[in-house]
Structure formats: structure tokens, C-alpha cells
Write a structure and sequence with these properties.
The protein is α/β, with parallel strands linked by helices and 344 residues long. It contains 12 helices and 8 strands. The structure holds the ligand C=CC1=C(C)c2cc3[nH]c(cc4nc(cc5[nH]c(cc1n2)c(C)c5CCC(=O)O)C(CCC(=O)O)=C4C)c(C)c3C=C and fe (ii) ion (2 copies). Residues 206, 212-213, 223, 225-226 line the site of one fe (ii) ion. Keywords: Cytoplasm, Heme biosynthesis, Iron, Lyase, Metal-binding, Porphyrin biosynthesis.
Length: 344
């Protein structure tokens, strides 16, 4: 058996041009695991409303964060792939759930290299229907249709692995060293509350209240909200943060449905109003910096904080191609391939 690895991230538009942004948003938001309403309603909402209003504003936001080499999310994912490939003997390919770097092309690239057993690695620490699930479901559909002899094994959410928490905590500690920080905000991408209920395998656990996510349950294997709160809890424990010096919030809501609370923008506002002068934000739902971290948090979030009288505002970069993170992913891959690796 020849083994290979397929890393999968979300994707990004081809360019920050409104035409390309519209095309990308069309594919992304028509995914039934992202906007999870019946097809007729999704068509109405996405094609009838969102794609006629959002692409211009989104394109302007993408323009602010776009790099010479391309979309930060894609460039950073490629750097991660290249660094892992330097440590791992087996071929490591990269694909995006949306856009031109498709999962089909990624699998084809591995098959062309003689691979018949793939480790599918969604680059998300927490499980969500809109991320991990849509990747694994699509990969399986593609396998059945085009590569029926290929074996695919998926890496589950790694939010509570002690070595991941250690790498994340070290990155936060290193970034904050020598900086003023009175409050650390853990901001996770939000999801509609309905997604949490839909992913509840017990069908009765998730109440989305103050207690369900801290009450042990089988449901937590697929509960995005629980997994986000667990990352905060475990990092807080590791860094020895005091009660009151940190919070958890959810960003990037879209539409009128209730999304997970509290919202990040309102939380930043509250912290400023309460007299916090120096704050930091970490965004552990994202492995790679992207529009949501570089624009929504580092630019818009900072502006809100300053308007509320805040002073120092710092954003902890995502793990991106951090050496400790590369070593960790390479180690997990080598545990699967059973080929020892040499850590650079
Ligand atoms: C980290 C995990 C993510 C979850 C969960 C998620 C859910 C989700 N997102 C939208 C709508 C949008 N998201 C957008 C950008 C975006 N989302 C994620 C990650 C998650 N999304 C990333 C990494 C990015 C950035 C991509 C980049 O190119 O840099 C956007 C596009 C930007 C905008 O117009 O604001 C939308 C729209 C929904 C509806 C959703 C539902 C569960
Ligand atoms: Fe999103
Ligand atoms: Fe819960």
C-alpha cells in the first residue's frame, strides 16, 4: 500500500475582484451544510439576495488583506503543506473545499503518485457541519464516483489533543510576551444555533445554554460549541489565566437566524466600555489567517476597541506554518503512516 496525505482547507476567491468573489460565495453558500435550508429557500436567499448584495462589500474587504502572492488563506496553507512535506516521506497534497483547488484534483494528484490509501486531513480543530463534515462527505462522494479502489481515512477534530493545546498555548504566550494584555478574547467563527442541534447525535443534549456544553455527553464528539469552549478551557488551564481575564465569543454571523452567542463585536464593545485598556484576541477556529482574522478581527475589531476608549489591541496570528505546529501535524501523520520522521 502506498500512503498519501490530503490537507483540506476552506478556500478563497481567485482574486479580490467582485466577479471572482461572487463566484466563490455562490459555491460556498450553496453548500447545503453551510446554508442548511431547503434548496428552493437556499436559491432564493443566496442567488436572489446575498449574491446581489454581498460580493461588492466582501471584495472591498478582500482587497484590504490580499497579498502579492494571492489569498492569505491559500498562501499560508501552501506554506504549511510544503513544510510538512519536508518532514514526511509520503506525498502531501493540498485541496480546498471551494474554488479551483478541488478535492478531486488533490486526490488525483495523489493517485498519480501511486497512492492507494489517503489520510484526509480537514484543517479545522473543531468539528462543524459547515467544515469537517462537508469535506468528508464530498471526499467520499468523489471517491465512490472516480476512485472506487482508493481507501480514505479522515482525521477527526483535534480540539482537545494535549499536544495541540500545548502548541496553541505556546503560540499565545510567545506572541503576548512583553505586550500589555489585560484581557484575552478567544473568538471562534460562529455558526447558526440550528447547526448545533442538527449535529447532536443524541437529539436531546444540546440546549445551547450555560450547562449543556460542560455536562459530559456523547453529543460533544460533534458539538462545535462544546469544542470551542473546551479549547478556551484547556488553554486557560495551561496558561494559568485568572477568571475574568479572558472571554469566549463568536464572530462572522450572516443572516437573521440566531447564531452562537456572545458575538465578538459586541464583546469587544463591552470590554472597551468596562474600561479594559489593553486586549488581545486569539482565533483558534482558524488554522490559517484569512479574511475573518486579518480584516474582521485585526482591522474592524481594533477599530471598535479604539472607539470604546481601548488602547493596545493585538491579534495573535493563527498557527499558520508555525514550526511547532508543523512538527505536530507531521508527528500525527507519521503515527498514521508508521514511517518515522525527522523533525527539522
Ligand atoms: C472556521 C470555521 C468556519 C465555519 C464554522 C464557518 C461557517 C460559516 N461561514 C459562513 C459564511 C461566510 N464565511 C466566510 C469566510 C470564511 N469562513 C471561514 C471559516 C468558517 N466558516 C473562513 C476561513 C473564511 C475566510 C475565507 C477567506 O477567503 O479568507 C464568508 C466570506 C466572506 C464574507 O463575505 O464575509 C462568508 C459569507 C456561513 C454562512 C457559515 C455557516 C455555518
Ligand atoms: Fe465562514
Ligand atoms: Fe452543548
Amino acid at each position: 500500500m502506498q500512503k498519501g496525505i490530503l490537507l483540506v482547507n476552506l478556500g478563497s476567491p481567485e482574486s479580490p475582484d467582485p466577479k471572482d468573489v461572487k463566484k466563490y460565495l455562490g459555491e460556498f453558500l450553496m453548500d447545503e451544510r453551510v446554508i442548511d435550508v431547503p434548496l428552493w429557500a437556499r436559491n432564493l436567499l443566496v442567488k436572489g439576495i446575498i449574491l446581489n448584495t454581498r460580493p461588492k462589500a466582501s471584495a472591498a474587504a478582500y482587497k484590504k488583506i490580499w497579498w502579492k502572492e494571492g489569498s492569505p488563506l491559500i498562501v499560508l496553507s501552501e506554506r504549511l503543506q510544503n513544510k510538512i512535506q519536508k518532514q514526511v516521506e509520503e506525498p502531501v497534497a493540498l485541496a480546498m473545499r471551494y474554488g479551483s483547488m478541488t478535492i478531486k484534483k488533490g486526490l488525483q494528484e495523489l493517485v498519480d503518485k501511486g497512492v492507494d490509501e489517503v489520510l484526509l486531513f480537514p484543517l479545522y480543530p473543531q468539528f462543524a457541519m459547515a467544515t469537517t463534515e462537508t469535506i468528508t462527505v464530498l471526499a467520499e462522494e468523489i471517491r465512490q464516483q472516480y476512485f472506487p479502489n482508493l481507501k480514505i481515512e479522515s482525521v477527526p477534530a483535534f480540539y482537545n489533543k494535549p499536544d495541540y493545546i500545548e502548541v496553541l498555548s505556546n503560540a499565545i504566550k510567545n506572541h503576548l510576551e512583553g505586550k500589555n494584555c489585560d484581557h484575552l478574547l478567544f473568538s471562534y467563527h460562529g455558526v447558526p444555533e440550528r447547526h448545533i442541534r442538527k449535529s447532536d447525535i443524541t437529539k436531546s443534549h444540546c440546549k445551547i445554554d450555560g450547562s449543556c456544553c460542560v455536562t459530559p455527553s456523547k453529543a460533544h464528539e460533534f458539538c462545535y460549541r462544546h469544542q470551542c469552549y473546551e479549547v478556551t478551557r484547556l488553554v486557560v488551564e495551561k496558561l494559568g489565566l485568572k477568571e475574568g481575564s479572558y472571554s469566549t465569543s463568536f464572530q462572522s454571523r450572516l443572516g437573521f437566524d440566531p447564531w452562537l452567542l456572545p458575538y465578538t463585536d459586541r464583546t469587544i464593545e463591552r470590554l472597551g466600555k468596562e474600561g479594559i485598556k489593553n486586549m488581545a484576541i486569539v482565533t483558534p477556529a482558524f488554522v490559517s489567517d484569512c479574511l475573518e482574522t486579518l480584516e474582521e478581527i485585526a482591522m474592524e475589531g481594533q477599530e471598535i476597541f479604539h472607539e470604546m476608549g481601548g488602547k493596545d489591541f493585538t491579534t495573535v496570528p493563527c498557527l499558520n506554518d508555525d514550526d511547532e505546529f508543523v512538527n505536530l501535524l507531521s508527528k500525527w501523520i507519521s503515527e498514521w503512516t508508521k514511517t518515522p520522521i525527522e523533525i527539522n
